[in-house]
Amino acid sequence: MSKKEESFEESIKKLEEIVKKLESGQCSLDESIKEYTEGMRLAKICGDKLNEATENINKILTENGKLEDFEIPEN
Question: What is the pLDDT of residue 61?
């Protein structure tokens, strides 16, 4: 059974928790690596969702004739 896809908000919240945990310095090396890996996974999810949202907004605005050229920032 596949895991439910996390929302942007859920991913950001988890990412913030990981950052706090890593910044505390209370993790072992192995735990830090595990948390870092999970943080990178969440960061990618968030980046992908933001890019998708930007593309959708660009499409809507272009279709309505209100915006000709909207650049998507590079990661």
Answer: 78
Structure tokens that stand for 75 in this block: 């990661």
CA 70/CA 75 separation, integer angstroms: 16
Confidence of residue 68 (pLDDT cuts 50, 70, 90): low
Q: How far apart are CA 18 and CA 20, in angstroms?
A: 5
E-strand ranges in the chain read none
The two tokens of residue 48 are: 């992908």
Q: Tell me 25's DSSP state.
A: T
CB 57 within 8 A of CB 72: no
Which two tokens mark 36? 């870092």
Neighbours of 72 (CB within 10 A): 11
